[in-house]
Amino acid sequence: MRATYCPHQLFFWCVVFMDDNEDLRLVSESRQGSRDSFERLLLRYEKPIFNAAYRILRDYEDARDVTQNVFLKAFQNLEHFNAKHRFFSWIYRIALNESINLSKSRRRFDAAEDARIEVRNTPENLLSRKELGEVVQAALMSLEFEHRVVIVLRHFNHRSYQQMGEILEIPEKTVKSRLFTARALLREILSGKGVL
For residue 172, is pLDDT > 80? Predict the structure, then answer.
């Protein structure tokens, strides 16, 4: 059994235990009509899916909507799940697609989003965890989606390069390159705000 750490929407950490064999068993039982087994999958992955959606969308209600849609789509498409892949990677990909679709429909990732958070560069305020978190979140949201999502996957959801490649459906080499660029862009933004 693997322990994977995922961020709570308020930056607290929770531990979710993911066991691929258990997932496959629960998926198999769910396909046979067991609502109890599907509810166990939901309980196992609800927080990580919500957290990923929240980090991407930066809106609690939108993240809740995405999470509900993800599990509805997962339930409706269980027959299409390929047991050769990890269930978490499959459902996480659904979550990313749902988040992308919602962001496009609401045009939420404008450059103007960054301007909504006022940042005072005094030492006292920057020491405040809440304000520092807001600065980092605003910087993250100002990145293009493809760069933001690799930061979220790697640093907030602690996915390996291989897992990231599976989720994003890109080669590991591309994952590493994209993450390198994303970190550099984030560092530049934070430096410009006086954080680094």
Answer: yes
